[in-house]
Amino acid sequence: MIIRSLYNVSRQMNVLQKKQENNAANAANANTPGYKFQHLVQRTMQEYDLYNRAGGRENDQRVELGTINFGTEIDGGYTSFSQGNLNETGLATDLAIFGRGFFAIELDDGRMGITRNGNFKIDNQQRLVTTEGNPVLGMDSQGDISEIFIQGDEFSVDGQGLIAGGDMRLMIVDYPDYGGMELYGEGVFIPGNMEYELNEANISQGFLESSNVNILDEIVKMMEVSREFESNQRTLRVLNDTLQKTVNEIGRN
């Protein structure tokens, strides 16, 4: 029983560590444009029936002893895609989406990624890129997808994502279900094999969408996890002391 309790407490501390790391990541990205906070879900592990064969006169009948589980584990996580506030920056390359949809970008391995972070810039090849240098994708009037090259000294986008000076518009994509997305980096997701649909863009130039992290909520969560961790540490010390005393008593006998 003591060994099982030690195992359960140790597993719970591992779960708490993962939750604390997640909360810390959310807090660290409170000022990252377009960042969507992550939440981990904890669940109790499967229960198993306990029994022995000590019943009856011949000690051969099954006796139910109850159930046992081996603690808790992380069942998964979800991302909150709630809208962040739009903050004016005045920079032409800062873009924000109001409502549903994502900017499409090309990742280093050639796959398409999506993001709500519209903190873009123009590189030395006159391409519109993310701060990490990944090209922002656009679509022309024929439906062809390509990188966006900026002609001239000014960059202007209307509310529907149409870029001035040509027929190219920002590729704004959306999905019926966000549950199948894989987190790739800070605010970047990979939609996998999900089929996208082109979204009717509502673009604000010169604005950035703020993170939807509530920093006070994250601090409270970190404090709660810290207290629970300390409680488990105390339980672990008590169990360890009890086990040592038991072993010493057995040794004396």
The major β-sheet equals: 6 strands, antiparallel
Gross morphology: elongated
Q: Which regions are unreliable across 5 or more consecutive residues at pLDDT < 50?
A: none
How far apart the termini lie comes to 21 Å
Q: How much is the radius of gyration in Å? A: 27 Å
H/E series? HEEEEEEEEEEEEEEEEEEEH
Structurally, the number of domains stands at 2
Notes on the protein architecture:
There is one protein chain. By secondary structure, this protein is of the alpha+beta class. The protein has two domains: 2-80 and 213-252, no CATH class; 86-209, no CATH class. It is 26% helix and 31% strand. Strands 15-16-8-7-14-17 form a six-stranded antiparallel sheet, with no helix packed on it. Helix 1 (2-28) packs antiparallel against helix 2 (215-252). The longest helix is centred in the C-terminal third of the chain and has 38 residues, at 215-252. The two termini are 21 Å apart.
